[in-house]
Amino acid sequence: MKPADHKIYLASKSPRRRELLRQIGVEFELLLLRDQMPRGPDVSEAVLPGEKAQDYVVRVTREKAEKAWEIMIARRLPLRPVLAADTTVVIDGRILGKPADQAEAMDMLRALSGRTHQVITSVALHRDQDTWQLTQSSDVTLSELTEDMMRAYCASPEPYDKAGGYGIQGMAAVFVKHIAGSYTGIMGLPLHETAQILNQAGIPTL
User: Fold this and answer.
1) Structural domain count, the chain
2) Which string of DSSP letters, residue by residue, matches 101-149?
3) Among 121, 129, 153, 203, which residue has the least CB neighbours within 10 Å?
4) Could you tell me the residue range of the domain that residue 64 belongs to?
5) CATH code for the domain of 34
6) What does the pLDDT look like over 65-107, one tens digit per residue?
């Protein structure tokens, strides 16, 4: 068991990020940001005009970590570092977020079918006035997908909470022909980079 002062908050609803943090022995509590109406999200994930994919994911991740810290202070919760991450998929300069419906998920998969795209994940740890942040990019090549394959996949719940409309750790693993980079980064939390920033902040892993 690690000392209590090594526990962190995780500002993410992703079950995959929780699993990955546990994999490297990090103790955490959830500190979730609001992302639903009617009050609107705590952090907007809208892309700014002319914003490049890497700049976008870095900005959103930092804003999530800083906002979660503010919420912790406002709620008078025990003071702990806050970890946040954000993942985006980009192809031909087009940023693919989470699809809103089946039509959008199908459109994303058509764009990715038979081609190589980038998955960019940024992770940030915020404590007091300090922020440690690293960003990782991987190349993913999908095989050619038929309409029937995409339709069957989009009939499942899997595409709709994932950037780009697919999850490499789920059924869509059969679509993935080749990756170059970090498998855990594609999942949503690059463990090498995450361990680096945790260690820099004095939080041991493993």
Assistant:
1) 1
2) SHHHHHHHHHHHTTSEEEEEEEEEEEETTEEEEEEEEEEEEEPP--HHH
3) 129
4) 4-200
5) 3.90.950.10
6) 999 999 999 999 999 999 999 999 999 999 999 999 999 999 9
